[in-house]
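can u pls check wat happens w/ heme C
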Amino acid sequence: MSRNLQPYNPLKLRPLEETGRAYAGAWRAMVLIILLVGVLAPVLSQAEDSVYEPLPPMPHPADNPTSTEKVELGKMLYFDPRLSGSNWISCATCHNPSLGFGDGLSRALGHGQKELGRHSPTVINSGYFDAQFWDGRATTLEEQALGPIQAPGEMNQKMDDLLKELAAIPGYVAKFKRVFGTSVITPGNIGKAIAAFERSIVSKNAAYDRYWKGDKKAMSASAVSGMNLFFGKAKCSICHNGPILSDGKFHNIGVRNHGPLKEDAGRFNVTKEGNDKGAFKTPGLRHITRSAPYMHDGSEVTLMDVIEFYDRGGDVKKNLSPYITPLNLSRQEKLDLVEFMKALEGEPILITLPVLP
Ligand code: HEC
Ligand code: HEC
């Protein structure tokens, strides 16, 4: 192909009669270059995406720097059922460390054991997201934490009542004073402490990380094949990319909603943009081996079920992302993809249960 290209030599003078031909040649070369760039760039940038990205240090907002004492206070609040109206449900009820910081259920059970519309996502690595919830309706963990406490369907607690309850527990008053410099307990500081604890829950040092640090034995041959499929033929990395294997964006991948809601408009509820109907946040994939079942409605039970789902190109075609198409994977390729996802499980995240004041 390069024989069509004129050497780059713009100052060289040509005889007049040759100029027209030279222009035609240059024009053809331009078209060729544009075509080449158009065809190759997506392929090349796909290859670029497959470059391993290690987890960066957890970012902390300027107005909520972390400290050991703050994380400890946040952990107490996270595990304290007195944060709920019934004094029976804590954050850990639905985001249980023993169950990958999820609850093992398809849809969460809220106040009065009533089934909610969505699956409890893991809070592992949630500090890396710029948007919280399946539809991204909260932007910070600080803001997010106050949602479930007051939601009638979840912890069903009136904030004023909670502030009174906590103010009556001397151990909490002393802790808040040490951490925030004031013994007046505020919703803002409750949110900050819980968020600081959540940012300490990170999945790291997976076989995938060790592999890229040079330990080529860390991943099995099957997991390596799965990785190549993930970043190649199976197109997973179009959406699952970056350090936590999520683009942080919202896509409709064609999940048929199983919950008590017939249809869940997802991101559309936040943006009111037609394109966002049925779109949900791309979950991170580190450590998800521990937080089955999967999807916003918990409709896929195992990782193999998830792969089968993608292999058939999703279930609902309405407003489907153009990136979701049947994959025609072989049995071995499906197993390889599952092995790769297993290689994304980090070292165990061990939590010592707090003694509550
Ligand atoms: C009754 C079960 C339940 C309780 C209790 C609960 N959550 Fe959740 N949590 C959920 C569900 C369900 C979602 C997803 C809701 C949605 O997307 O609309 C969620 C979403 C989240 C998210 C967003 C994660 C992400 O990746 O988007 C975080 C963080 C979180 N909860 C933390 C907490 C904290 C902190 C508490 C306690 C203050 C708490 N949750 C209490 C069920 C619960
Ligand atoms: C078009 C973007 C996109 C592509 C391509 C894509 N995903 Fe997803 N993935 C998502 C979104 C969005 C969700 C959540 C959808 C929902 O709950 O409705 C999801 C959910 C998942 C889950 C469930 C995680 C959990 O915690 O519930 C897994 C596992 C997963 N994807 C793996 C893969 C694999 C493997 C591939 C390639 C075969 C892939 N994804 C391709 C966007 C994508």
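Residues 1-24, 35-49 have pLDDT under 50 and may be disordered.
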